[in-house]
Amino acid sequence: MNDWITPDWPAPPNVKALFTTRNGGVSQSPYASLNLGGHVGDDTGAVEQNRALLRRCLPADPRWLNQVHGTSTIGIDRNDCTSTSCGDAAFSQRAAHICAILVADCLPILLCDRGGTTVGALHGGWRGLAGGIVEQAISAMGTDPASLMAWLGPAIGPGYFEVGEEVRQAFIQRDEEAALAFRPGPHKGKWYADLFLLARQQLKNAGIPAVYGGGECTFSDPARFFSYRRDGSTGRMAALIWLT
To answer: Looking at the whole model, is its pTM more than 0.70?
Structure first.
């Protein structure tokens, strides 16, 4: 396993992060090959082998969450944090506690502070972003937003993410500026949404001055990325971040 993406951002040297691709594992089609999601119908043994391959590259086991497309943030330093903990964001202030988020079109958002004391990972699906996951995660982390930086990983691009009017309204009701992230689709009542822009707007409004990454499209690159919108039955990739 060596085909992963390392965030290009000026994080402190004790902050480590990576984003896996679909390559380097043992799963068979349609989950080929480094599927890390145990809830998508893949063979359980294959997923375990894939997670073991990932583990070789990490200082500890990732703290997986039970993601529910919500806005809850889990502090993984707690002793009662387990893989059954429901949440779509995680943060840590201890070394070798690895925040992990699974995605396959939704936007992974990684956070760290400039002092290298706190890291976080957010599952930025449209429901989470519209529901306020950015603000809730920052509040839970207890860190001054002005000291934070963010990195946006691969997600479905604005040329492919078609949504209904109800999704557009969910964002505009929170912030009128969000209208800039939608353009009319080919069908009546449909819009193309830009998750990257929506996240950038929310991070800026939350007080985070520096946002990096963004723009890599999962839908249009089947050789490297899983995409639920493109394939339906498919695997999941992971965004991970930790302190050393």
So the answer is: yes
